[in-house]
What does this fold into?
Amino acid sequence: MQYCIETHGLSKHFGKVTAVDGLTIGVPTGTIAGFIGPNGSGKTTTIRLLLGLVRPDAGSATILGQPLTNGLGYLPRVGALVEAPAFYPSLSARTNLDVLARLGGYPSSRVRAVLDLVELSDRAGDPVGGYSLGMKQRLGVAMALLPDPVLLILDEPANGLDPLGIIATRDLLRRLREQGKTIFLSSHLLGELEQVADWLIVLDRGKALYQGAARAFLDQHPGASLEERFLTLLKGAQR
Amino acid sequence: MTALTPVLRAFRSELLKSRRLSMFAGAGTMLVASGFFSYLTFKQITSGATGREIDPLTHAFPTSLGLITIIGQARAFIIVVALIIVTANVAAEWSQSTWRNLLVREPRRLRLLAGKMLALMLFVLVSMTVTLVGSSALVLGIAGAQGVETAAWTSTAGLSAWLAFFGNELLSLIGVSLLGMLTAVLTRATGVAVGVALAYVLVPEGIIAMVWNEGSRWFPIRTFSFLPGSVFPPDVGPVAPQGYTAALLAALLWMTVFVAGSFVAFRRQDINA
It folds into this structure.
């Protein structure tokens, strides 16, 4: 199996707090990999490590065949939405995207394309500060898609979306997978993950409790939902 | 792609952010307040007021240094506004959590910061230029309307003095902008960064100067203010007691320290915001 993301013993401490603890995981290429765990389990720190925003204290990782230390080797092919989307609120959605397009050297046609894709073209000239939570979330997804990435790392992309928005995001993720992209998806919406994820990584206290095919995870207890399996696994680990 | 391409991209990207209302508010404040200070100074001189503060300005008024002495009264204000603009803009990338967007698109941190700072410094430079030209035009216009003799101000010597003042104010502005960058990188929050930078510019060097004048002349804000001060008559000043060249070298050294400090800190920082 070919992996898009591989980590080996990745660790990160903030003072006395261990956020990520010797994490060894792999995300197969061309899959939607669900990344789940309770709050504070280290999901966002792992994502920040993979994006080069924080530096590991120990361990290593390979993303798109490039070592973590060579961000320039893989980041141009990665799109990311980390936690709540961050913007310049007084600027329009189009200008916010233009800021990133100029920085990454992407043509302005990409800005129009991603605005169309997340259905924000009609409001693209409005200041982002006046957007609803769902619109901000869609703009965050647009920012992640700007480089037409091979690997998409999304942290709670459905946060704040209404049911129609959640369905649209689900469809978008499936379309992106069909295009051969790999999606590393952190989410608390386990019902949604159950519908789209091919691969699962369950994190608790910075360590991986489970990683493998989503189907295999559910098949261990036929009839149980992802939520039930997740809670059982978590309780077992915390005993 | 050359080594400068990422810097140029970061510069062009940052220019887009200059469209924000807060940026124009800063530049507008600089222009309006400086024009007002210049107008007040002109009125005070031409009204025949006397006093320890105004007499040196009155003496310089009919000379080739007259115009810059009037518009130069707002120079500290220009520097303070520039400091706020730069510091707030750099620190806001932490407060708004936008570094994470930028660093995913451009992981070469030093080039990103360099491009950003070049754009910000261009913005404050253009703002300062518009302010100084606008204030000069305002004073010349009022003087013309009141029949005040201004031939010395527009003479070759007067224009040379204006350009010398402009160049030295520019150096001073670059210095405080770099101080603002360092403060923002170290504090990583807009309110704290602006507060710390302003407090440093306005308070500690003045207090230290009262008890240790000999040493304080080498401190950054004092050396930066000596540069434009050197163009004015000695009794207007402030004139560098160590001499202009020594003050210039000290100012350049401080700028280098601010750049190095910012780059070293930013290169190693975890972006958790």
Observations:
- The mean pLDDT of chain A is 93.
- The CA atoms of residues 89 and 128 of chain A lie 5 Å apart.
- The radius of gyration of chain A is 18 Å.
